[in-house]
Amino acid sequence: MKSRSPNLTARVVNIIPIVALMAFFSYVLWQILMPNVSEIASTISVRIDGANTGSGVIVEAAGVGTAAPFKHRYLVLSNWHVVSPPAVGAKRSLTIGTSDGRKHIVSIAKVVRVGKLDLATLEFQSQYRYRAASIGNSARLREGDVVYVSGWADPSPQLVTRTYQYLVGNLSGRIDRPRDGYALVYTVNALPGMSGGPVLDWRGNLVGINGRATVDLRTGTVNSVLGIDIDRYLRARGDLPTHRWHKY
Questions:
Q1: Domain residue ranges in the chain
Q2: What backbone torsions phi and psi does residue 73 show, to the nearest 5 degrees?
Q3: Which residue among 171, 220, 222, 234 sits deepest, i.e. has the most Cβ atoms within 10 Å of its Cβ?
């Protein structure tokens, strides 16, 4: 009786290159189809300057009028504690810095609080086109999921000027009875000035707004960073301008 071992070995040897080739093409296809989250984050994030500093994210865009020069209207979502009149002080306007380096003046009259959450919307107009965030489903987030946080960090001993930051971490938990809407807890050491910036999932979808950190009073180190899930914004916006906009 002839042994089949040599034939079996030959088959295995022939299969290995095929499996390796399939794995390679799968990896290439994944790289092509996988969203570039860092690029998305940098284009939808904005810098906010006033008496207070913070960050924000463009959540909606619409056209304004039909006559030239054609303008675009943008809605930015940020933290209420960043853009509220008490935070602004005597100033009657804020400055929004977009990804192309341009600055846009926003009147305090355009700032609207979102329900009782630590969220607010503000509007600006421009002749230039900017990308708006794709809204995700924060209810699908699970502990351990990767999250990305971006925004403009304030100057520090290591940072001479305000600097754009893109940070990666994981969702570590949820708070059942959140204060001011802060239900998301994640392992991202976000810096001062990044409050109001977006929290994105691995697809680049907006799933939350970064805004609060708990600090160990003994060591001064950050224990955890908190965000408001985007579902709370969608439920609380009510009569805000967002639902009346004609989107692109």
A1: 1-34, 42-133, 138-234
A2: -110, 135
A3: 171
Closest CA to 169 of 224, 248, 231: 224
Q: What amino acid occupies position 131?
A: R
pLDDT tier at 248, thresholds 50, 70, 90? very low
Q: Which CATH architecture has domain 138-234?
A: Beta Barrel (2.40)
The DSSP symbol for 154 reads P
The pLDDT assigned to 129 comes to 92
Both structure tokens of 248: 């692109």
- 82-141 pLDDT, tens digit each: 998 765 556 788 999 999 999 999 988 889 999 999 999 999 999 999 999 999 999 999
Q: Please state the length of the chain.
A: 248
Do 185 and 175 touch, CB atoms closer than 8 A?
yes
Q: Is 177 helix (H, G, I), strand (E, B) or coil?
A: coil
> In the beta sheet, which residues pair with residue 152?
164
DSSP structure string for 11-31: HHHHHHHHHHHHHHHHHHHHH
Which strands make up the sheet holding 103-107, listed edge to edge? 103-107, 93-97, 45-49, 53-64, 71-78, 120-126, 112-113
42-133: CATH homologous superfamily? Trypsin-like serine proteases (2.40.10.10)
> What's the first-to-final CA gap in the chain, in angstroms?
74
Residue 70 near residue 127 (C-beta atoms within 8 A): yes
